[in-house]
Structures are given as structure tokens and as C-alpha cells.
Amino acid sequence: MSSDASASSTPAERAHELSLADAYEAINEADDPRWAYGTGFADPLAGVDTRLPAGVDGADLAAYCLMLGDDALIMSHRLQEWCARAPELEEEVALANVALDLLGQARLLLSRAGAAEGAGRDEDAFAFLREPGEFRNVRLAEAENGDFGQETARLLIFSTWRLALLDRLAGSRDPVLAAVAAKGVKEVAYHRDYAAGWVVRLGDGTPYSRLRVIEGLAAVWPDVAELFVPHEVESRLAEAGVGVDPATLREEFDAVIHHVLTTATLTVPAAAPPVENRTGRGRDGVHTAALTRLLAEMQSVARADRGARW
Amino acid sequence: MGGRAGRSGGEMVSAREVARAVPDPELPMLSLADLGILRAVEETGGGGVVVTITPTYSGCPAIGAIRADLSAALRAAGYAEVEVRTLLAPAWTTDWITEEGRRKLAEAGIAPPGPAPARPAGPVPLTLGPVRRLVACPLCGSGDTEEVSRFGATACKDLWRCRVCQEPFEHVKEL
What we know:
heterodimer; A: mainly alpha; Ferritin; 13 helices; B: about 180 residues; GMP Synthetase, Chain A, domain 3; 2 domains
């Protein structure tokens, strides 16, 4: 649906037409009937001009929105699994709040993916009706939960990386992505402060708390290298001024992680094996069994009773 | 709505006035105008209204209720066609909460937000260590308070405690 849909107007006209008011005017428009597992978004962009920024392929933009949306969706689900399991009520509330922010980001990104794809899929179809091999999230997000020390380590890595990414994406030529990113920067900055605070508290705490976060860091560190290797879609969209090349995030990521770990009297784990030596990446749809199990639970109700409404 | 909506002596209340008075579902002491999420209220003629709102947080679960409440209030006031649009940019900030809204929050025992932190040039700065914000206790007025948790019962609030009157209280996070 990409290029021919906008062939009749100039790039300047198209940019003007893609105002956010237009792009978002129908979000949440259809309150009823609602899909039982979903959100009230019957078609978030119904009746809206969903043409693409000049020179951008719709399939690429859809794939890119799924990457960033799946990162948020899957990480959100792992954080939701802490409900009724966190060490203290305050931390349970905190992790649930972080999960809620990420779920909100995921909903907007998956909806944008559906509009860019132009095949009639909405956020619920993407979240609940895709197979594991169709998900594009990084493997860091899907790994099984460990203990609280490991979760704080993962959240520090995830939020440091995502914050750097969203901060650059706020300058995207796609006004929808730019708006979602600018909003997300404020939220993820808060998540990063929270996670960094806990890593320092645990690392510079008791011998036992220190051991928990050291082992937690070691457990998640092998998934770090993958975060910075661009998929070809990411490279093309970065070239087009719409996406971000994740390789450009490494310097900021390393500086923040070094600062936090030094403050926590910890050291950065040894470098993980290069990504090239591993068997595929999450961005290619190559996942671990952990994602299959996660989706089996997350999608079970939606798949058991497809199209149910309330 | 407190009876402000609807026809009064046969005269129609303006759509803007109706929309402004709709209470926030999670902070019902605040109107949507107090909260600063109303961007525009346009009467399109023939009983039509287009309301534009900006959500507080990406995942704010109240946004659906806000849309429904806006539609119901405007329809009750005699506007037949109500469209609620969402505008994400520029992103909402707590700086948009009005003075009146801040007063109502404090009256309800919720500490209002201070000024949202200014963003310096360069990467988003990391905040490590204890929070040094001055948050006055909304119950006794003391400034001798401490943060208990960076997150609270809703996305927009965190938890504090007053060292003087010993009461815990909520505070609207600066965003």
C-alpha cells in the first residue's frame, strides 16, 4: 500500500496532510461493541488519512512499528508477571506502573503498524493472533523472569536502551512515531531512574543483595549485544529519517550503564559472544522457547473465543 | 457535572463550558479543564461538537472513561453529535494543571506537582540517589516530608510521608 497511495501529491503536501490531529482523530472512536480482550479500539485510525511520509515503504514502516511495539508489549507482559510476586507492595505497584506505560506505548505502535500495513489488522490482531515467529521483539524482553535482582538489571538495560532510542525517534519524519516517542521519553526516563536506583541499592547493599544483582546482570548480559545490531528495516528507515539505527545508541548506553554500575560498586560484565555467532535474532522472528510459553498464556483467552464482544 | 450541564432557562450551555466541567475519573476533584487535558472544543453547527484531548500517560486507563464521560455530558446538554479526538503532540505535562486544579488537589489531601523538570541539551539526564524535591504535606503544611515510593495507585501519582504529622499522602508526579 506504500507508494501508490500517495502518488498524487507532493512530499510537502503529504507531510502537511499527516498532521497528528488527523492521524489520531479516530483513536478510541468506536466505544461499542468492544472486543472482549481488547481495548475499545475497533479501528483506531478509521476514516483517517494514513498515507505515509514521502519515500517511506509501508511494509517497512509497519515492520518497524512492530519491532518497537513488540519490545514494549513483551517487556510489559514480563513485568505484569510480577503482580502478586514482588518482594514488597511498593515494588509490585512500581513494576505494574512501568508495565502499564509500556503497554500504552505498545498499543499506539501496533495501531500505527496496522495503519501502515493497510491490511486491516488492528492492535488486538497483532497482539493476540500472531505466531511466535511473527514477533519482532528483542530477546532481552522475552527472557523468563528471574529474581528481583535480575529484573532490576534487565529493566535498567531495557529502559536505558529504549530511552536513548525514543529520544532520537522523537525527531522522526513520521509524525505518529515522533509523537509516541516524545511521550515515551518522559515515561521511560522515570523507569530508568527507578531501575538504576535499585541496582545501586542492591549492589551497594548487603553481601547477599550484591550477589543477587551481580548474578542477575550476568544472566541478562548475553542479550545486550543484540540490542545494537541493526535489522535491515531499521537501517533503511534510519536512512529515510523515520527510524533509528540502534548502533548509534551504544555510546550513550555504555556511559549510563557504566555510571550506574560504578555507583553501585559493580563492574560491567564481560562482553557477551558476538551476535553473529548466535542463531538468529528476535528482530528476525527467531525467538527462544520463553516467548512461545509467554504467548501461549497471553493469547489463550483471545484464541479460545475469537471475536467475542462485551 | 454538578448540574452545570444541560439547558438552563431554555438557554443552551456552551459546549466548551460543559466539556470543561467534566470531572476526571481518577482525580474526580479535578475537572478536565483543571487537569489541562482539553485542547479544543469546537461547535460545528447543527448540534455537533468536536472535542480534542491530550492523554496524560500513554497507558492511562482513564482515557476511555474520559471520552465516554465527555460524550455523555455533551449529549445530555443537547449536543447530538459528539466527536472526541486525541492529540498526542505536544505531550501533556503537569505544568498544564491549573492553579485552581492545584488548590483542589491540596484540599483533597494530594500534594500538587512542582514545576516539571526542564530538559537540558544532550542525553536525558539520569537521576540517582534520593529525590530532593520539596513537597509540602497537604495535611499539615510541613515541608519535612520524604518519598516512600516512586509509583502510586495511579500512573500520575507517587507516595510520600510527612515526618511531622506522620501521615502518608499522595503527590502528583512532575511530568
